[in-house]
């Protein structure tokens, strides 16, 4: 089969199966990404005799340490789409992360986020070290456990119309800070692994780069972006006053160029490309709604991100989960991931604000549990750089999926229990 025909068949089949998988799990109230990951796992592990679905699709995964371009003709294209998908995904997350939310979220959210980063990180390191793993594995597992998927929790709260509750505001603000801290942790971990050694100077250097990058973006958001916005508004008003048709600037093109440029810059200086994409999104966050960037970027992301989650599933070798030691580690990691976020975020918030009651502590703790796509992204970076073993990668994927499945129904139940009045049918509601 010639290359273009094979590529078109492969991309069509992968995207179609991904959407079917997402649609299927959504009927059970679960995030669609879980269905896409499961489809990837099924594709990678289906084989009947000498025939395999991977072979039919022309996909050949690279061996650990092998360059992506050396694996096959088709897989590098799928990999490129998956990487672009995750870049645009983090750009979308950045679009929802306003600097004003970061700077004005208060001590409660800040302490909850910090403790919600420290406890899972220490627990992740401890698990790998206790089982005799190397430092690179320990660092990437710890970094993957730090992540919180704000999108999943925010969706639940929005669907329940409880965004104005005290707990919801703390959860969203803490998750935003958690995202930034998670990006810094990832930058530090990636820098240490790439340098091949753990040194105070190396850690300080990577931390300084990451912090400077974040602060540069914050300053740009406060002082540069408003001037760009004013420039567009002045140009529009001058055109109207002179009787001319206002010239239009495609804000989407500008946003995509900045996103790709900052992702490339982050990769160039030794940070992860997704860090640059996330920070690029923050640049446009204040005016994302007005410029209609989110729905436009979402269209790009929703297509490409399916290939990322499919690719996540393709990397999971089911045979690695037949080893009972790996299964035991997975169960331990899932339990620690749930408990450390619950204690760190829930009781971290209580530590600062004594007025938060027991039910509020539980809501905040559970609301910060889902790892979702962020933990998987970090693990995929570790696997691609051979810093994380296939077995530990499968553990992280299971942990991310498990926390994403477990947390939403518990959070929904806790909210309904505390805010039962919101769901009572009053006389005036009756027809």
Describe the structure.
- The chain has 17 helices and 2 strands.
- It has a two-stranded antiparallel sheet.
- About 45% of the residues are buried.
- The chain has about 425 residues and is mostly helical.
- It is globular.
- The longest helix is centred in the middle third of the chain and has 42 residues, at about 200-240.
- The protein has a single domain (about 85-240, about 250-420), classed as Up-down Bundle (Na+/H+ antiporter like fold).
In summary, what is this structure?
The chain has 431 residues and is mostly helical. It contains 17 helices and 2 strands.
CATH topology: Na+/H+ antiporter like fold
Low-confidence stretches: none
Can you identify the CATH class?
A: Mainly Alpha
> Which structural category do the helix and sheet elements fall into?
mainly alpha
Biggest β-sheet, characterized? 2 strands, antiparallel
Total beta-strand segments: 2
Strand order of the largest sheet: 1-2
Order of helices and strands: HHEEHHHHHHHHHHHHHHH
Arithmetic mean of pLDDT: 80
Q: CATH architecture, please? A: Up-down Bundle
Rg measurement, Å: 22 Å
Number of domains: 1
The level of helicity is: over 70%
């Amino acid at each position: 089969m010639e290359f273009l025909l094979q590529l078109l068949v492969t991309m069509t089949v992968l995207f179609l199966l991904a959407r079917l998988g997402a649609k299927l799990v959504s009927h059970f109230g679960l995030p669609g990404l879980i269905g896409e990951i499961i489809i990837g796992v099924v594709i990678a592990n289906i084989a009947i005799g000498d025939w395999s679905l991977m072979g039919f699709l022309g996909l050949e995964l690279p061996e650990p340490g092998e360059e992506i371009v050396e694996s096959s003709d088709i897989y590098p294209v799928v990999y490129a789409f998956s990487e672009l998908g995750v870049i645009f995904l983090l750009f979308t997350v950045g679009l929802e992360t306003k600097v004003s939310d970061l700077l004005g979220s208060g001590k409660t959210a800040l302490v909850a986020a910090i403790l919600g980063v420290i406890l899972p990180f220490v627990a992740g390191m401890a698990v790998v070290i206790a089982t005799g793993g190397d430092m690179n594995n320990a660092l990437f597992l710890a970094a993957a456990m730090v992540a919180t998927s704000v999108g999943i929790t925010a969706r639940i709260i929005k669907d329940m119309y409880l965004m104005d509750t005290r707990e919801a505001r703390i959860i969203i603000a803490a998750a935003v800070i958690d995202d930034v801290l998670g990006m810094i942790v990832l930058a530090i971990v990636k820098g240490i692994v790439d340098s091949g050694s753990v040194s105070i100077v190396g850690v300080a250097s990577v931390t300084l780069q990451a912090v400077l990058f974040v602060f540069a973006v914050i300053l740009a958001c406060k002082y540069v972006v408003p001037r760009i916005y004013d420039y567009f508004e002045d140009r529009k008003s001058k055109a109207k006053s002179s009787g001319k048709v206002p010239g239009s600037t495609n804000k989407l093109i500008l946003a995509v160029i900045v996103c790709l440029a900052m992702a490339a810059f982050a990769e160039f200086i030794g940070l992860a490309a997704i860090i640059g994409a996330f920070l690029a999104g923050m640049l446009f966050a204040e005016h994302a709604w007005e410029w209609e960037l989110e729905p436009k970027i979402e269209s790009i992301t929703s297509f490409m991100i399916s290939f990322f989650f499919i690719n996540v599933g393709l990397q999971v070798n089911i045979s690695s989960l037949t080893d009972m030691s790996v299964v035991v580690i997975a169960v331990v990691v899932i339990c620690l991931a749930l408990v450390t976020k619950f204690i760190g975020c829930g009781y971290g918030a209580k530590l600062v604000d004594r007025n938060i009651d027991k039910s509020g502590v539980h809501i905040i703790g559970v609301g910060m549990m889902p790892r979702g796509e962020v933990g998987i992204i970090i693990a995929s970076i570790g696997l691609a750089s051979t810093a994380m073993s296939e077995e530990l990668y499968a553990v992280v994927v299971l942990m991310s999926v498990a926390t994403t499945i477990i947390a939403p129904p518990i959070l929904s139940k806790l909210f309904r229990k505390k805010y039962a009045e919101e769901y009572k049918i009053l006389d005036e509601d009756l027809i």
